[in-house]
Amino acid sequence: MNIILLSGGSGKRLWPLSNDIRSKQFIKIFKTKDGQYESMVQRVYRQILDADPEATVTIATSRTQVSSIHNQLGDKVGISVEPCRKDTFPAIALATAYLHDVQGIPGDETVVVCPVDPYVEQDYFEAIKNLSAQAAKGTANLVLMGIEPTYPSEKYGYIIPENDSAVSPVSTFKEKPDMETAREYIRQGALWNGGVFAYKLDYVLDKAHQLMDFTDYKDLFAKYETLDKISFDYAVVEKEPAIEVTRFSGQWKDLGTWNTLTEAMEDSSIGNAIMDESCANVHVINDLDVPVLAMGLRDVVISASPEGILVSDKGQSSYIKPFVDKIDQRIMFAEKSWGNFRVLDVEEESITMKVTLNAGHGMNYHSHKNRDEVWHVISGKGRAVVDGLNQEIEAGHVITMKAGCRHTVIAETELKLIEVQLGRDISVHDKEKHVLG
Amino acid sequence: MNIILLSGGSGKRLWPLSNDIRSKQFIKIFKTKDGQYESMVQRVYRQILDADPEATVTIATSRTQVSSIHNQLGDKVGISVEPCRKDTFPAIALATAYLHDVQGIPGDETVVVCPVDPYVEQDYFEAIKNLSAQAAKGTANLVLMGIEPTYPSEKYGYIIPENDSAVSPVSTFKEKPDMETAREYIRQGALWNGGVFAYKLDYVLDKAHQLMDFTDYKDLFAKYETLDKISFDYAVVEKEPAIEVTRFSGQWKDLGTWNTLTEAMEDSSIGNAIMDESCANVHVINDLDVPVLAMGLRDVVISASPEGILVSDKGQSSYIKPFVDKIDQRIMFAEKSWGNFRVLDVEEESITMKVTLNAGHGMNYHSHKNRDEVWHVISGKGRAVVDGLNQEIEAGHVITMKAGCRHTVIAETELKLIEVQLGRDISVHDKEKHVLG
After folding, report:
1. How far apart are CA B115 and CA B153, in angstroms?
2. What is the ipTM of this complex?
3. Would you tell me how many other CB atoms lie within 10 Å of the CB of residue A84?
4. Do B378 and A420 count as a contact with CB atoms less than 8 A apart?
5. Which positions in chain A touch B416 (Cβ < 8 Å)?
6. pLDDT digits (tens, 9 = 90+) for B376-434
7. What pTM value is reported for the model?
8. Cβ contact B308–A326 (<8 Å)
9. Cα B397 to Cα A76, A391, B312, B379, distances in angstroms
10. Residues A309, B292: contact at Cβ < 8 Å?
C-alpha cells in the first residue's frame, strides 16, 4: 500500500503545546501500551505499519515540519516537502510525482491520501486497505472513504451515495451544512467526507499534467511557488464523474481543539500535575518541570509549555485562535532532526538555551555573523569542530566561538550543552551553513 | 516612634509566588503611584516613614528573610534575627532587647509591635502613632489596637472594651468564636484583635527577665534555641490587668489567601496575561516571561512563577496549604542581599542559573567542595576574584572555577551572568565562606 499523509496546520488551536513550527500532530499526548507517550503522527505511522508492514508512507508537508518528522519517525519515512503552502491539489500532485519519480512507484499502483490527524483505531487502517483494493479494481477513478455520521455535524462536508451497499457510486457532494440540513442529509443516508481517498497513481499524475506545466517531480518542485492555490476537491473531485464511496463505521475523531483532544486522553493529566478532589472534568497537560496545582475547577483544560500557559473552559477553548494569533512569542522549544533545543533565558543582548543532541547525530556546520557563542557541555560525549579543528568533548568542557567562526558538535552518546549566545540583533536567520571538510 | 514589625510565615498559602524562603510579604503585587509594583513589606515600610519620617523600624524575622529585606528595603532598616522560630513572646523579647542594647533606645520610650502583613491605608499608621502616644502616658502597661469589625469573623480573636470611648480599659479577651458567638460579641461592642499593641520598652524587658534567664541581647540571642515556645498573648497579655484598647475604624485587611489578596489588586492581572471577554472575576499574577491565556473562567486565580503554576477557584484557594506541603520543589528563585538568582535548568549532575547582582554589590567570597562552576557574563561590568586573583569582567567573559576554588564577583554596574554548576550531589549546603583578603 502507498499512502500519502497530509500534514499541515499551524497548530495555533492547541497553543501552547503547538506553535508555528510545532503542529499539533507532534505533541506527545497519547499513552502507549508501555506507558510512554506518542504523538498523533507517531500513532498513525505505527498503526499504518501494524496494518501493512510493507506500506510506503510519504508525508506531504512544509519544510518547517521536516526536523520534527525525522526526530519522531526516523529516516525511513518518505517526505514530500512543499516549498510553500499551495492548497491540496498542488500538494497531492507533488507528493504523487515524488512517489513516481523519487520512490519509483509504477503508475498503475494505487495511492491512498489521508490527513495525518484523525484519531482512529486499527479498523480505520483495515478500511484504508479495502479502499486501496477497491481503487485497484479500476471501476472508478477515485474511491472515497465515507464515514458514517454519529451526529448532525456542521463541521464536515457530506457525501451522498447512490445506494447503501458497502461500495456505491457517489450521487453528489454537499458543503458543510447547518444542523437542520445535516439532519436531512443523514436521513438520506449521507456520509461524512473525511478527506480520505484512493486512486491509481497515473490518474492524479495525468490530471496534474493537464492542469500544470511541468516535466517531472524536480521540475514541479522548482516551479512550486508559481502554482495557483487550488484544492483537490475543486480541481479534481467535483469534476470527476467516476467516483465511488466505501463506508467506514468505526471510531473517527477530529482532535482539533483542546476540548476534543482531552477527550482522547487516557489519564486526566500528563506531566507534573496535582488536582484537588473538588476538580471535575479537568485536564492538565504540563510540559514544564515545575508542578501545576489545580483546585476547585470544573470543565477546564490547563496546558503549560515553555511557550506559555493556557487555562480555558473546555467549550471556550475552540475560540482560541485569534488570541494566539496576537501573541508574538519567540519560539522557546523546537525539535530538530538531531535532537532539540529549549530557550532558558532571553535578555536584550543574550539568549541562553539548552541543546540536546541524540546519540550519533550532529548539527549542520555553521557560523553566525552577529553573535558569539559559548557551549558548556553538561552531560554526554562527542566531538566539536571549530574552524576545522576537531576536539573531543565531554561534561565540563567549555568551547567559545566568536562571530564568524564555523562550528558544529557531533554527539557520540546523548549530549547536552548549555549554549550562551551574545550579541546585538540575535536572530535565527543569522546562520550560514558550511560544508564540513 | 519605635516600631517592631513581626515578619513570619512560610508563605505556603500564596504558593507559587511565595515559598520556603520567600514569604508572602515579599511578593511585589501592589501598584504604586508611579506604576511600579511594591511588596507588602515595602508598602508598610513606606507608609510608616510617611507617617513618621523619624521612626525606628525593626523587623523581627528569621534568618531566611534577611536577604529579601535588605534587597527590598535597603540597609537602614533594623533587623532582629530569630536564630530559630520560638513563637511571639521570645521574638518580641529579643527584638525589644535589640532595640535597647543594639539601637540604644532608652527604657522609657514606647515601642509598637504590629504584624508586617495587614493591608491598610495611611490612617492605620496615624492610629499607631496615637497608640504609641497613649502608651507613653503610662495609664496602662499595654495599649492594644482594637479594630472595629466589619462582619462577624471566625478568624480573629475579640477584645471586649469596658466602654465605647476612643480609649477604654479592656474588660476581657475572647478566643476565635463561631459566627453566632461573633455576632453576639459585636452586639456587645467587641473589637477585633489585630495583634497590634504598644508598651514602654522596659515593661517587656522586665517581663522577659522575669520569665527567661539572660543578661542582654547577645546573651538572649545565644540562648535562643533553648527557650520555650510561648505566645506573647499567653505569657503577657492574658496576665496583665492594666490594659487599654484604642479604636481603629479604617480599612484593615488580612491578605493571607489568594482570594483576599486578589481583592486588593488594582488591576485584574500582573505580568504577561491575556483574558477573553468571557472571563469574570479572574485574576492572573504571572511572574514568568511567557504569556498566560485565560478563557471562559469565573472566580479563578491563576498564579505562575518559576516554582510552579496555581489555577484555583478563589474560594477553594484557602485550602491550598496541605497540597503545597506535599510539593517537594527545589527553590527556583531567591532574592539575596546582593541581587537575585533564578534556576533555569536542572539536570542530574548540573544546574544552570541566571544570577543578577545589583550595582555596587557582591556575593560572599566562597567555595564549593563538590562542584565546578562556570560564569558567563551576559551584561554589565565588575570584577571577579578567583583564588585571590582580581580580574575585570564584562559581557562575554567566561570564568571557570574548579571545586575548592574560592571565588566571588562584585558588580560595578548591574551585572548578569549565567552560572553552570557541574558535579554530583549539587546542594545549596555545599558552600564554605572565606574572608576576602
Report:
1. 19
2. 0.86
3. 11
4. yes
5. 347
6. 999 999 999 999 999 999 999 999 999 999 999 999 999 999 999 999 888 888 899 98
7. 0.86
8. no
9. 44, 22, 44, 10
10. yes
